[in-house]
Amino acid sequence: MSGFDKVVSSYEEAMAGLTDNMTIVAGGFGLCGIPEGCISQIKAMGAKGLTIVSNNCGIDGFGLGILLEDRQIKKMVASYVGENALFEQQLLSGELEVELTPQGTLAEKMRAGGAGIPAFYTATGYGTPVGEGKESRSFNGRDYILEESIVGDFAIVKGWKADRFGNVVYRNTAQNFNPIAATAGKITVVEVEEIVEPGEIEPAHIQTPGIYVDRLIKGTFEKRIEQRTVRAS
């Protein structure tokens, strides 16, 4: 069984091999389903010049936002950037390169990368600044632009439960970008709330097969709420 066991005992081991100027694909949406421990380990390692591919860049002081504090991110590929004042500051000052990407296109860039598809055509963004400088073609009377897929040096993912072979289950909306991010890394690291023995997860319930997972770690999670709204009493 040891040859198939993906479990590592520390975040140092989980993120071993991360160096400057790498590309990291990160799961999560807002603060929902983010790989908190992996992000903290990246900060602790001090890797610089990183390209981060994720739906957004967390918030000030939490999530991917903590990597902005020491200027670790060189380029951010994201579909939404509106909750982070430090992000805005670095963007406007020219310290941070940002590639804004339509959300569906970003998801497909990850999915296609994981499927071994180097590029795809999409109508989204044609005729807008998103499509500037990109190859375009017409199919059945509609215009499309060519978008390149993405594969990261690392993919960092948050799951709910996994067996020791790396078969992962996600919980509710924490699925978001995590299943596709898991396919799009040369090294995929998954942190979960619970690790069980092989056979304890029904095969039909597995959402990321272990073949995509290189390293698995049991983490602890703060699960901070990004925007808390309560009803007036």
Automatic annotation (TrEMBL):
Domain of life, source organism: Bacteria
InterPro entries cross-referenced by the UniProt entry: 3-oxoacid_CoA-transf_A, CoA_trans_fam_I, CoA_transf_BS, NagB/RpiA_transferase-like
SUPFAM superfamilies: NagB/RpiA/CoA transferase-like
Signal peptide: none
Keywords, ordered alphabetically: Transferase
Pfam families linked to this entry: CoA_trans
A GO molecular-function descriptor: transferase activity
Gene3D superfamilies the record matches: Glutaconate Coenzyme A-transferase
Sequence similarity: Belongs to the 3-oxoacid CoA-transferase subunit A family.
Protein name, as recorded: CoA transferase subunit A
Phosphoprotein recorded as keyword: no
